[in-house]
TrEMBL record:
It is a peripheral membrane protein. GO terms for molecular function: clathrin heavy chain binding; structural molecule activity. It comes from Oreocharis arfaki (tit berrypecker). This is Clathrin light chain. Clathrin is the major protein of the polyhedral coat of coated pits and vesicles.
Length: 134
C-alpha cells in the first residue's frame, strides 16, 4: 500500500535529525532524566521484592501460630471430652442436679455473645431448689 506521507523509514530519519538538532542542555537533561527513572525503577523493584519476602515470612508465621492454636484447641477439647465421658459414667441416684449444674453456666456476665438464656437458668435454679414431686 503506497502513501505520499512519511513512512517508518522517514520517521526514523526525522527522529535522528531532531536529536542531532537538539541543544546540548536538553540532551543532557534527557539522559539524566532517563538515568534517574531507571534508578527509581530499580529501587521500586528492589523494595517490592523486599515487601514480598516480608509478606511471605509474616504469612508463614501466621500459619504457624494458627496451627499452634488449632493444636491447643484440639488438645483441650479432647481433654474436656474425656473428662465429660468419665463423669457421665459415674451416675449415682440423686446427683442429677449437680451434673446439670456442671453443664450450665450460671454466671450471666461470662458469656456476652451467647443467646439470652436467663429464663432457662431461672427455671433450672428453681427446679433444683424445689424439685418436682411425682
Amino acid at each position: 500500500k503506497e502513501s505520499n506521507g512519511p513512512t517508518d523509514c522517514y520517521a526514523a530519519i526525522s527522529q535522528v535529525d531532531r536529536l542531532q538538532s537538539e541543544p546540548e542542555s536538553i540532551r543532557k537533561w534527557r539522559e539524566e532524566q532517563k538515568e534517574r527513572l531507571e534508578q527509581l525503577d530499580a529501587n521500586s523493584r528492589k523494595q517490592e521484592a523486599e515487601w514480598k519476602e516480608k509478606a511471605i515470612k509474616e504469612l508463614e508465621e501466621w500459619y504457624a501460630r494458627q496451627d499452634e492454636k488449632l493444636e491447643k484447641t484440639k488438645a483441650s477439647n479432647r481433654a474436656a471430652e474425656e473428662a465429660f465421658v468419665n463423669d457421665a459414667e459415674e451416675v449415682f441416684p440423686g446427683t442429677e442436679w449437680e451434673r446439670v449444674a456442671q453443664l450450665c453456666d450460671f454466671n450471666p456476665k461470662s458469656s456476652k455473645q451467647a443467646k439470652d438464656v436467663s429464663r432457662m437458668r431461672s427455671v433450672l435454679i428453681s427446679l433444683k431448689q424445689a424439685p418436682l414431686v411425682r
